[in-house]
Design a protein that fits this description.
The structure is a single chain. The chain has two helices and no strands. By secondary structure, the protein is mainly alpha-helical. The chain is elongated and about 35 Å long.
């Protein structure tokens, strides 16, 4: 898990990038996004 400091730096760097044109995330970031998407879908199905 990345430390809060690293996350803060990353957010500061990426905050200038338009979120609609972010490049395809690689590695851990992509895995986290897939997991979050999966969790969201499974939570929607339970309702």
């Amino acid at each position: 898990m990345a430390s809060k400091e690293i996350i803060r730096q990353h957010l500061a760097q990426s905050s200038t990038i338009n979120l609609d044109v972010t490049p395809v995330p690689k590695g851990d970031e992509a895995r986290k996004m897939k997991i979050m998407e999966h969790l969201r879908k499974s939570q929607d199905q339970k309702r």
